Amino acid sequence: SSFIKAIPLWINQKLWMKEIIKKELNYEGIVLFPEHHESHAASAFFASPYKEAAFLTIDGVGEWTTTSFGTGVDNKINILADIKYPHSIGLLYSAFTYYTGFKVNSGEYKVMGLAPYGEPKYVDLIMNELIDLKDDGSFKMNMKYFNYNAGLTMTNNNFHKLFGGEPRKPESKLTQREMDLARSVQDVTEEVMLRMAKHIKKETGMKYLSLAGGVALNCVANGKILRENIFDDIWIQPAAGDAGGALGAALYVWYQYLDNERTADNKNDFQKGSYLGPEFNNTEIEDYLKQNKIEYKKVDDEELVNITADLLAEEKVLGWFQGRMEFGPRALGARSILGDPRSDKMQKNLNLKVKYRESFRPFAPSILREDLSDWFNINVDSPYMLLVADVSSNKKIEMNEEQKKLFGIDKLNIKRSEIPAVTHVDYSARIQTVTKETNKPYYDLISKFKEKTGCPVIINTSFNVRGEPIVNSPTDAFNCFMGTELDYLVVGNCILEKSKQDPNLKKDYTKEFELD
Question: Which residues pair with 52 in a beta bridge?
Fold first, then answer.
């Protein structure tokens, strides 16, 4: 069935891609196609800070490869080994995404967020029945349980029988079973990635590791690799998924094919905060606001930061739209929704009233780099929100015996630390470190918030609602502001207060987007 569905696309488009590109661009030169995992590897190594490093790429599948490793030296990469389709840790994770009722290729991060609510009850079953994992991290999957090879779903009746029931219906109530399934596949994935990392270290002897591919967005597993001290340091491509393939292809051609020089210092990566998208200056922003008769107040940079920090300290929730947009799936303080992490109601309210998504979903903290080790058990740069670490013991609030007995979603409402809104149920957080060099306006805001409250941390989540792409333009930002329960919008040097806006400007635009 999947062959019948796919073959018209191949015959009409994919087989003629070079000709289509030449025609559409009116181009007569050479069209180059790096392989999928070559592009991932190029995005992992060439954008990294390292002169020499090993790389690991893991995803669902690209052409026939699902996992590869190799080495990068100066301006060349070399793939040493790979694992081929249908054996894929990315597709194993996606099978559980499908089975727990979430959308494949977008809901995997929900499974990761759900995992700490569960117990690893199914780990042995997965290891014994679904995957044959070797000491070096290589594996084969038992295709008896999967349908993605020939059908249009991820799992089949054998899988459903093995785990005691049909897949959860999307949007239906989550139960402890889904949480236990999520925890189990997360634990298996972490074990696979740890074994791979140890093997790569042994084979290559490299001091550093860089990662890409959709599975490299599993920041919990990344944090484990870092804590095991297998490598001196690791670096993860911010756009680790297929979006980063475009960057990887360009870097591959620039360095590998055209042999251009590459100068790395083992410290600073080449993505400079990943603020690579469009930006809108104050004139463009004000023109839009005036044309649409939108009420706003314009202030200078200093007053902007001061007012915004006060609003955050008053537990207001606001949209923050500044400078060039982020490249990659994480909001990094350019197109972000911000809140006060000290509020124990903020996580639930933000999820349900602003993002319109499941209440269990965790939020990330943005923290001043110099304050990192005071608040979290980690002391390496994490500018791209791709590492998870625990809250420092001196900031934790230990649970009492009664609270420790709670299961599943009941764990959500317990205050676990001085920053409960960004502390997940297992005391972890997905961290973004912020420096003056990469994002001065955002750094100044967090610094001012610290000055006023003593807390160098704020909540940072992407400026959008569930199913919607992150906002790009002032128009997108205003629509999202008016369509949600955000209190304020800070766009460029303009501050908009919800209560002063014309309610007729509000429109329910969320129906335009399919739920994720």
Answer: 73
Which parts of the chain register pLDDT below 70? 407-409, 509-513, 515-516
Residues with Cβ within 8 Å of residue 351, at least 6 apart in sequence: 357, 358, 359, 360, 361
Q: What is the pLDDT of residue 466?
A: 81
Helix 176-204 and helix 219-227, axial crossing angle in degrees, nearest 10: 50
Residue 309: CB atoms within 10 A of its CB come to 21
CA atoms of 458 and 446, how far apart (whole Å): 7
Phi, psi for residue 55 in degrees, rounded to 5: -130, 155
Q: DSSP of 339-397, one letter per residue?
A: E-TT-SSHHHHIIIIIS-S-TT---EEEEEGGGHHHHBS--S--TTS-EEEEBPGGGB-
DSSP SS3 for 298? strand
What residues does 186 pair with on adjacent strands?
none
Q: Exposed (0-12), middle (13-18) or buried (19+): which is 13, by Cβ within 10 Å?
A: exposed
- Contact assessment for residue 84 and residue 143, using Cβ atoms and an 8 Å cutoff: no
Per residue in 375-421, pLDDT (tens digit) is: 999 999 999 999 999 999 999 988 787 777 776 667 777 888 999 99
User: By three-state DSSP, how is residue 248 classified?
Assistant: helix
DSSP assignment string, 61-110: EETTEEEEEEEEETTEEEEEEEEETT--HHHHHHHHHHHTT--TTTSHHH
Question: If we measure between CA atoms, which residue out of 73, 37, 74 comes closest to residue 56?
Answer: 37
Distance of alpha carbon 368 from alpha carbon 376, whole angstroms: 12
SS3 of residue 272 by DSSP? helix
Residue 509, pLDDT score? 60
Instruction: Report strand pairing: 488-491 vs 494-497.
Output: antiparallel
Q: Please give the DSSP secondary-structure letter assigned to residue 44.
A: H
In whole angstroms, what is the distance from residue 336 CA to residue 325 CA?
10
Q: Give the tokens for residue 136.
A: 């070096």
Task: Count the alpha carbons within 13 Å of 404 in the hemisphere toward its beta carbon.
Answer: 5
**Residue 449 parent element (H or E):** helix 440-453
Q: Where are the beta strands (DSSP E) in 154-253?
A: 208-212, 233-236
| Residue 285 DSSP SS3 | helix
**Residue type at 278?**
P
The Cα-based distances of 194 to 121, 189, 227 in angstroms read: 20, 9, 11
- Cα–Cα–Cα angle for 119, 123, 129, nearest 5°? 150
Give SS3 for 138.
coil
Distance of CA 385 to the CA centre of its chain: 7
Q: In what order do the strands lie in the sheet with 52-62?
A: 76-84, 65-73, 52-62, 208-212, 233-236
